[in-house]
Recover the amino acids of this structure.
């Protein structure tokens, strides 16, 4: 009924995304800290901060893969037991499920890979989805060709490598090949790769798969620095690059309707702020730098997507017109059905009015009231009476036996 | 034939044979010079924290405020205990720690050295980290009496206050052991040895009771030495004592952390070896190096921390010196911050250097740069030994080299033909021959003298205190006489070739021992190398006997002049050689460092070091240096007693 009243231009607008090439229908995030130990507190705080942000901007927990190799909240050296902070003001507890304010609650932390599970092998398996069938779905990256993926990594790295937990490292080539496999398996639509480590920009130099946008915190032979230390926690709590990412995202991305563009975000990472040359690699995306910079930040950090209606057949420009005609037909039929019983059956209209049910639900109500002949009702009442009699008789019999 | 013959002939090259003594002398000079250039900026480095986990001075310290009152109360308590009996004091210290909620245990110990007893009782308390996994521990120490023997009032009080304060924190990843040892040397030694043993069997010289309370593996120990009395005393600087038994050192990271926390975070200046005014000049740097060289070569304890080093537990002592404006709370905060840093460790300190030479609190030389100094000096002995070995393989000089007697006909030396392609040459046969060396007697002599070294070692460590000086005087006399005796009655009867072999073996052993020792205790190896350096140049002296006998038979002016000339050579050389003998050097050391205590004091300390502290210096002196000197002396003086007929 209501559908029929929709102006057709609105429906045409809904169908618009069909004609734009770039669209994604889901957002996923893989957030990885690769170092453990108390003095690397900041790497876990970095990752948890990003986790909080993407969750705030709408990516649900089951679409965030969080890899944390250590547990800072429960480290005996932690003065603030059960808490991780990313600022010395300690206003925001990254571990707290309530937060400083009631409405900032995050609903806890869901760590998907923790401790020794955070390995290069697991990370590459996660990206390429090569798991034994027993591997739980909650620990998988269930992306498809319409998924936008955000990958954030932080830890200790060097020229073209990133250390994983002091015992192994992943090279830029491993990463590039894993992304290529993802591309071949149509596991992403577009990907934003972020890395905060020393010589971070070398990590994306080997990428060659289309659709990968990459950014890093420092150029080759440059260190990435921590932002500040908390003298009561006793360690550095956050890295510079991540700090300014968060600053931008916290101040500019106030809601899921913020229309901030990626170019603005990337430009925020100046040398004065980060103390190293943050880099961006645009060339693997369609449209290159100019187009990419115009993309919304929420395309990767949020969960705002276009909706695609699968047609199955070859799309033609007239498809939507046919759909509209069909919808109008359906609407007309519903209208005629609605007006017909209104005059015949007063009871039925009274019941629907009392329930306040919309007319659409009438179709299902028809099933119960459709067989409305008196004969059928009498037969039903008779069968009920017979069953009731049988029950009472059996009751009496059992009582008699009980007395004996 | 050709090449090997040439090489064999090369061995006879007069230039090559003359070279070794000069090479040895050069090595010694280079070794000494090497040490002298170490203080220069080009050869030393600024210290730095190597271990990421330490994070020195990154925490706020909260030891202050009302803790000061607690400290003053404890200091009064400690003062009160100092006027009671030992028994009451130990019970009192125990009850203070028990009240704080620590698990307390006492440990008694005794050693018998030089007829005396060293005994005492340690009191230790265990503070269990509330969230720690009990696999690791750190030690906070304050000896009841500091290294100088003064009562450590403020040090003990501060340790107790800190224990009470630490107990309130829940951030300890390691347990904390609080140790109040009876003294600064033997108490910690007894405690740490019992800590690392499951059962201690009492011996004639040692009786240490086992520890009823232990924690995990020790990751670090910090001792406080602050003997200010009940009315307090502000201090100027912190002297950081770091050298352990046998010259072992704590990891440089621990030292650096202490320096950084004290100077950067708390603003307290630090010093080394009590050198309060260090201007960072070449002279002061060299002075600091030399002081370290001496304490490390002696190898005795320099504070409560020293006993921990042999157990691979890194430890330092913070000692207050001077009169300034830092008070006990600043020292307390320094200790707090230092413990927070040790607490941050994830594994045993291993990142930084264990072998280093400090010239200032922020400058050091690492092993790669200083080791060659001792190695090159050790090498000088090996060079001499090889030269002597070659010489011992040389045939005794043929008649051609002797002066002709009237009417004698010179025999043609055996010649052999050497062909190399078209070239043909006549070469004396003896140049291509190697005379068989007779090894038994030389080996037996060297081995025998080295074994004899255990006699003075045994005597000096087992004789009673009152008899020690007499024993030592006797030993000195015996040391000077023994080589004379061996030379007169034994070596002078041996052919020169075997004397050569004896010296070669002895020097070879010395070179090998010193180069090995230099990796364990650089200072000892370096100083010993310098003291032994004359041994490379020892050659049999001219024969006095020959001259005397000649002079009785034929009175000639020439011979009288010869005697005088030989005596003029033998006399000064003998005096110089005796001057570098181990006992004489020890007498000099006594004169320099043991003014009031005298020889007795020095010898008792040495015996205590060997018996109670496990210091190896005694064994090195009597088992390495003394035998080598005796063999050298025997070779030196063997020439004097050589008969003229020996050669014929």
């Amino acid at each position: 009924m209501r559908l029929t009243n929709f102006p057709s231009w609105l429906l045409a607008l809904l169908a618009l995304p069909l004609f734009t090439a770039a669209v994604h229908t889901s957002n996923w995030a893989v957030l990885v800290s690769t170092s453990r130990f108390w003095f690397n507190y900041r790497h876990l705080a970095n990752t948890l901060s990003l986790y909080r942000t993407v969750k705030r901007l709408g990516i649900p927990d089951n679409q965030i893969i969080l890899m944390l190799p250590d547990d800072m909240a429960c480290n005996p050296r932690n003065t603030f037991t059960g808490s991780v902070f990313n600022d010395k003001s300690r206003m925001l507890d990254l571990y707290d499920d309530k937060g400083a304010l009631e409405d900032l609650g995050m609903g806890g932390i869901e760590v998907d890979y923790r401790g020794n599970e955070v390995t290069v092998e697991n990370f590459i398996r996660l990206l390429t989805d090569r798991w034994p069938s027993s591997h739980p779905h909650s620990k998988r990256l269930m992306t498809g060709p319409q998924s936008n993926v955000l990958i954030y990594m932080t830890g200790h790295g060097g020229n073209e490598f990133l250390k994983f937990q002091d015992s192994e490292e992943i090279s830029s080539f491993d990463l590039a090949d894993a992304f290529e496999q993802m591309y071949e398996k149509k596991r992403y639509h577009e990907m934003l790769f972020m890395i905060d480590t020393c010589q971070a920009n070398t990590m994306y130099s080997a990428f060659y798969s289309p659709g990968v946008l990459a950014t890093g915190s420092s150029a080759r032979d440059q260190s990435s620095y921590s932002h500040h230390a908390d003298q009561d926690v006793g360690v550095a709590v956050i890295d510079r690059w991540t700090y300014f990412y968060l600053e931008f995202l916290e101040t500019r991305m106030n809601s899921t309707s913020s229309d901030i563009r990626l170019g603005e975000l990337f430009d925020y990472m100046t040398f004065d702020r980060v103390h190293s040359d943050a880099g961006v690699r645009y060339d693997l995306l369609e449209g290159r730098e100019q187009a990419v910079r115009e993309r919304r930040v929420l395309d990767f950090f949020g969960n705002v997507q276009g909706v695609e209606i699968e047609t199955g057949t070859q799309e033609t420009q007239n498809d939507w017109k046919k759909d509209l005609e069909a919808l109008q037909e359906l609407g007309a039929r519903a209208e005629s059905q609605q007006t017909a019983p209104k005059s015949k059956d007063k009871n039925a209209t009274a019941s629907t009015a009392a329930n306040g049910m919309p007319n659409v639900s009438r179709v299902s109500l028809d099933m119960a009231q459709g067989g409305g002949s008196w004969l059928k009702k009498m037969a039903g009442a008779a069968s009920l009476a017979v069953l009731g009699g049988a029950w009472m008789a059996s009751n009496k019999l059992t009582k008699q036996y009980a007395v004996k | 034939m050709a090449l090997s013959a040439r090489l064999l002939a090369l061995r006879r090259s007069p230039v090559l044979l003359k070279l070794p003594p000069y090479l040895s002398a050069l090595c010694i000079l280079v070794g000494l010079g090497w040490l002298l250039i170490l203080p220069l900026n080009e050869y030393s480095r600024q210290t730095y924290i190597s271990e990421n986990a330490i994070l020195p001075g990154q925490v706020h310290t909260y030891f202050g405020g009302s803790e000061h009152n607690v400290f003053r109360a404890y200091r009064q308590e400690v003062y009160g205990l100092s006027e009671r009996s030992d028994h009451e004091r130990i019970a009192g210290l125990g009850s203070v720690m028990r009240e704080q909620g620590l698990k307390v245990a006492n440990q008694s110990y005794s050693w018998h050295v030089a007829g005396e007893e060293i005994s005492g009782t340690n009191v230790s308390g265990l503070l269990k980290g509330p969230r720690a996994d009990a696999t690791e521990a750190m030690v906070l120490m304050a000896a009841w009496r500091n290294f100088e023997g003064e009562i450590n009032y403020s040090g003990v009080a501060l340790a107790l206050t800190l224990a009470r304060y630490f107990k309130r924190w829940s951030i300890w990843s390691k347990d904390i052991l609080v140790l109040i040892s009876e003294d600064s040397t033997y108490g910690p030694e007894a405690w740490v040895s019992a800590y690392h043993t499951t059962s201690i069997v009492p011996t004639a010289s040692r009786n240490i009771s086992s520890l009823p309370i232990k924690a995990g593996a020790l990751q670090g120990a910090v001792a406080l030495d602050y003997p200010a009395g009940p009315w307090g005393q502000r201090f100027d600087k912190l002297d950081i004592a770091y050298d352990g038994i046998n010259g072992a050192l704590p990891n440089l990271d621990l030292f650096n952390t202490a320096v950084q926390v004290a100077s950067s975070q708390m603003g307290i200046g630090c010093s080394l070896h009590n050198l309060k005014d260090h201007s960072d000049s070449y002279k002061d740097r060299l002075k600091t190096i030399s002081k370290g060289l001496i304490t490390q070569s002696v190898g005795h304890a320099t504070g409560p921390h020293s006993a921990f080093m042999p157990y691979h537990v890194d430890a330092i002592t913070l000692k207050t010196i001077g009169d300034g404006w830092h008070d006990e709370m600043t020292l307390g905060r320094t200790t707090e911050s230092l413990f927070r840093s040790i607490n941050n460790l994830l594994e045993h300190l291993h990142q930084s250097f264990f072998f280093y030479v400090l010239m200032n609190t922020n400058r050091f030389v690492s092993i790669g740069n200083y080791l060659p100094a001792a190695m090159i000096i050790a090498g000088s002995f090996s060079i001499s030994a090889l030269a002597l070995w070659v010489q011992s393989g040389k045939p005794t000089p043929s008649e051609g080299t002797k002066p002709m007697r009237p009417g004698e006909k010179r025999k043609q030396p055996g010649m052999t033909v050497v062909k190399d392609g078209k070239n043909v040459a006549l070469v004396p046969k003896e140049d291509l021959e190697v005379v068989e060396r007779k090894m038994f007697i030389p080996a037996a002599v060297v081995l025998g003298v080295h074994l004899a070294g255990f006699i003075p070692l045994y005597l000096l460590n087992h004789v009673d205190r009152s008899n020690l000086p007499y024993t030592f005087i006797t030993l000195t006399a015996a040391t000077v006489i023994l080589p004379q005796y061996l030379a007169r009655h034994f070596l002078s009867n041996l052919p020169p070739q075997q004397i050569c072999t004896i010296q070669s073996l002895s020097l070879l052993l010395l070179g090998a021992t010193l180069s090995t020792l230099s990796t364990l205790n650089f200072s000892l190896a370096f100083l010993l190398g310098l003291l032994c350096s004359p041994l490379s140049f020892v050659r049999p002296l001219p024969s006095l006997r020959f001259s005397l006998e000649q002079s009785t038979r034929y009175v000639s002016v020439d011979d009288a002049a010869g005697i005088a000339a030989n005596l003029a050579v033998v006399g000064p050389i003998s005096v110089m050689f005796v001057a570098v003998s181990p006992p004489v050097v020890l007498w000099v050391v006594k004169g320099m460092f043991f003014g009031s205590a005298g020889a007795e004091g020095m010898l008792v300390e040495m015996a205590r070091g060997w018996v109670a502290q496990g210091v190896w210096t005694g064994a090195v002196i009597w088992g390495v240096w003394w035998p080598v000197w005796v063999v050298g002396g025997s070779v030196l003086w063997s020439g004097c007693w050589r008969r003229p007929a020996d050669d014929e």
